[in-house]
Amino acid sequence: MTRLLAFDTSTDAMSLALLTPQGRRARDEAGGAKASARLLPELLAMLADAGSTLQELDAIAFGCGPGAFTGLRTACSVAQGLAFGASKPVVPVDSLLIVAQDARTQLADDAPAELWVAMDARMDEVYAGAYRWESGRWTVLSAPALYSVEALNAAWQSAPPTLVAGSALDAFGERLALGAAATVPRERSRAAALIEVAAQLLAEGRTVDATHALPVYLRDKVAQTTQEREAARAAKEVAT
User: Residue ranges of the Gcp-like domain (predicted)?
Assistant: First the structure.
């Protein structure tokens, strides 16, 4: 009977999902610079369409990174505002793990249980991490980190991957030393994967107080923008 609202704006997509006893809703839309203004209204509309309220939720989940700085700040600000206002716990979701979950849904049951996620981090760098799916849950084998292409290739040379997913495959192409690894370069539904991972984490009790719901930055921090502060303030006002 779980009720969970989840969203992610760590990439150019804006992913929204809702889990209720009546089922799951998941939607991917264009995000980027527009996400700051559109995220909160879209979330409230999704709740209204499902006949649900913030007060009925068990938790609020958000993609905590790594990813685009502004997108991470936007999602974190909205998650904190909604959670503070409605007195709900927060589920931070590793944004690379969302990609791993999506890749798993695209593969056959006998696909490798271990995979690397490699996402284009711009500036000729890659966000990458390794994960294992076993007994119905994910474990982290190599925590998300920021790599140069050369550094990631060196890591893979010492321990060749069997499966790689993520946007870096298209962005860097033959520059990545994939060897014989199978690949999943594109996501099928980021929102659907997000709600799956968030529900797993919630079931495991992996929640935090809104105060401790923070983005995962792998580059230097910069100040929160006025637009992001306004998004957080609006989210808190709506929830109260």
Answer: 36-153
